[in-house]
Amino acid sequence: MQAEYADVNRYNTFPKLLAYNAANWPDEIAMREKEFGIWNPYTWADYQSMVKRFALGMHKLGIGHEDSVGIIGDNRPEWVAGEIASHALRAMIFGIYQDSMNEECAYLINYAGAKIIIAEDEEQVDKVLEITEQCPCVEHIIYCDPRGMRKYDDPRLLSHLDLMKMGDDLDKEQPELYSQLIAAGKAEDVAILCPTSGTTSNPKLAMLQCGPMIEHSLSYLLADPKYPSDDYVSVLPLPWIMEQVYAVSQALICRQIVNFVEEPETMMEDLREIGPNFVLLAPRVWETVAADVKAKMMDATPFKQKMFKLGMSLAEKAASQGKGQSKLASWLLFKALKDRLGFTFLRSAATGGAALGPDTFKFFLAMGVPLRQLYGQTEMGGAYTIHQADDVDFDSVGIPFDTAEVRIDNPDSNGVGEVVAKSRGMFLGYYKNEEATAETLEDGWMHTGDAGYFKKENGHLVVIDRISDLAETSTGSRFSPQFIENKLKFSPFIAEAVVQGDERPYLAAIICIRYEIVAKWAEQRGLAFTNYINLSAQPEIYAMVQKEVEQVNATLPEAQRIRKFLLLYKQLDADDGELTRTRKVRRGVIKEKYAEIIDTIYSDDEVVHIDTVITFQDGNKSRIQTDVRVVDLQAGDKDSTAGQAGLKSAV
Known about the structure:
Helices cover 37% and strands 23% of the residues. By secondary structure, it is an alpha/beta fold. β1 and β2 form a beta hairpin. α1 packs parallel to α9 and α12 packs across α14.
């Protein structure tokens, strides 16, 4: 099937592409949103009308060229409409992750100098109102969900329905105005101020232009085609660059249908109902899906468990022999499993934003999910490498798009050096941050800060880790923490792992259990527990996780094996600054925050004494006093009762 895409040279801004689609396919479905259990469709004509009314209303409020507009909330049609409307006014948008804390929101709003904030509902409006004294630039707050808003009397608040009514009134007065506004848009206009992940500091805002972003999205479509009326389920946050590529840019070019789930918690159920043709999920989501499948097998009958093991064995054998998917394995197991997950109609599936462990990758390939690894950066307009459909290599991130170039700078004897790249969608620079721009861009090339190399046999790019994260023990053994962590997280019982060992005599791991699955495992064995802290301290849980660590160690060179580990008393949390909003570990924060724990691991002590205070998202605090056991795998499990670290007091 040959895909035909819009002429991106002629329609070189998002509003122009939308107007083209609405004029030629007004009654085709462009989006769906699930509300109260019902999928509500929006045609291209509906999409165009909403954007036009938004844009004219915002124009009346004084928004224009190079102004900035902030958008916060779950993925919704109004989110996308507010974005395209801002582009129609030649304004710049930036997305704020919906679970951002107040100080994070204030930082971004002030950094961008936002005049308008489009907020989904009362929760997000409250967040903005609480920081307004810190953000004098905000002149208007547009809310899209009226529930609970009657009690507010702030003059800056305006319903999106009232905003669109203002747009209707202006349209009656000047019926040609909207057409004139979008005609004035230029390919070189900065459209998106896209926040970077902020693994080492506050996020920066990458300036992305309309035309290059659209051309780069077309390059991606040529490498991984999508077709009109294909279904895509939008589940990753819209502030993230890859969701901008799929839900906004590519959807306008190829006219795929973007489906918005009812709630993040209903994501997998809603995905099953749609049965998408393409899906993009973050590595942690793929890891969770794989873990859930394995967890469900714990509850299955012995016969079903045997069938699962047989199916996996057949699939892995077929894959290792280059025979593709095993037909018998598909009949025994994977056909029903794919249907249950909503993956039956997938022609392509992708993961990006962080490395996906090879073991997880193999699991889905064995299942027959056409999974491909992407690689890119916010600054490059998203992904610029991908696996070809007939050339998937789970150790790599594929090959560059036709419009992208990648080189390796300062390679060592093994060919490993810094990944340096350029693409058509490359950013102009960081907004109001010339110093950071100069550090990253050089002669039109971006220094990614990632370590990688090209495979000689197939030319695929392999990305190892962040250069700053590559480590070396005091005995001279080099290792990649991320590689080992991904192997650990293939276990259904391990949600997060942070490997230590830089300038230390051996490797150690701080591990967070996957609470929902470990709790089920414990219940099946009659173990009593009250909460995460109490469960993670159980000796039986330590013994179970120890087996998982030992299995990973068996696949690693001796110098890269984990010698000690402990189970952390809490999950790593973005609200505590331990993870970014895209769920990447902030290693610097971990190293500083848990310095005492790390030092104890590398001492002769067998127990870490914890006395700390946890602050919850609602502001409540809880005092935690507990003992956390350190397991030395070389010493053996001398005292199985040593792991009983009871919660002494809380709150």
